[in-house]
Amino acid sequence: MKTSIVVLIFAIGGILAHKVRYDNHKLYRLNPKTNEALEQLKQLEENDLEIKFWNDLRGKNHFVDILVPSEKIEEFEKFVRGFEIDLKLINTNIQEVIDAEKTNKRSTGMSWTAYNSLETIVDWMDSLATEYPDKVTKITVGKTYEGRDINGVKLSFNSNNTNNAVFIEANIHAREWITSAVVTWILNEFLTSTDAGVRNLAESHDWYIVPVLNVDGFQYTKTTDRMWRKTRTPYGKCYGVDPNRNWGYHWNEGGTSKNPCSDSYLGPAPFSEECTRTTSKYLSTIADKLIGYIGFHSYSQLLLIPYGHSPAHVENYDQLEEIGLKAAKSLAKRYGTQYTVGNIVETIYIASGSSMDWVKGNYKTPVTYTYELRDTGRYGFLLPAKQIIPTAEETLDSLVTMFEEYDAQTKQI
Ligand SMILES: [Zn+2]
């Protein structure tokens, strides 16, 4: 009762709240050429939270995409020109890209030619459980601060599948809409595809699939702010923790911010967030069944291996790199999309407290990857809906190879 009142209040708040607009906000790609320039950009990221860094600062000679509000453009360009930083304008009005995105109406049902609402995704998963009662079971893996359920499905074609399950998580970062779109498309293929490779993948493992983990944040991207990343827990005058910096394995060991207003705020304590705490509890109940944990993010076209807190290689790094490279090769076949494979620290930058690291660190789950899906920056988080199916197709190609390779290796032992 109490929960439903809270949800109702937030729902009304969501309807009444004004949508955040990004008129004439410009997206730049910067490339710092010296350590000094890199340091200046770090300071800028810390000190001016109205200027939004879309990726982590990786080092000199690595690009970073930055969204600048219209009223700050002159000041920003002057600042950048003061240092050795290459500057490229990628988009002159991000609001136009947001307006061009299509969000599906609930009444038209699930679609992969538009981005779906939270309600459409949940309704669709409910309908799968009805349509495939012997294969699909609805699961609730946790709760959110605003009292919503974190929903997913368990998919099992074969009751003899034991201890070979794979957990798939998407939209832990709210604005990365392509991730839940891809994951739901793959789930649909698992149920309907007649391709031999897909059938084998779907049927030889049990699947736990959670398309939207950060439910409050995702809903907020739909009602209020398309560019929201974090949870919606209030901390002082700001909201939200980065839920992929909040897990209790080497938490607070770099790549995070202690400022509650920052997009990478790690939270006051590990598992401070209802969604990470409750999901981790759920995972601990099925951990002994899992051979795989795959997290989906966007963007950058990367296939990442744990860990994010240290460059030290994880115990089965060589195996994960070998399988990852083969998976990336498969991914490239269909549309030529190129992925980089490697561990988080060496490929991007230090980023501690992720869900994948917590699973790997605690349970030594063998197949652990994080995808950073399309693209490499033209649209960034605002990938046009017409790219949903191509992105999903190539991603599924890579998953088929990934588990074919892993299963073949483990059978040899
Ligand atoms: Zn992300």
UniProtKB/TrEMBL annotation:
GO terms for cellular component: extracellular space. This is Zinc carboxypeptidase A 1. Residues 115-394 form the Peptidase M14 domain. Residues 1-17 form the signal peptide. The lineage of its organism: Eukaryota, Metazoa, Ecdysozoa, Arthropoda, Hexapoda. Gene3D superfamilies: Metallocarboxypeptidase-like, Zn peptidases. It is found in: Secreted. Transmembrane segments: none annotated.
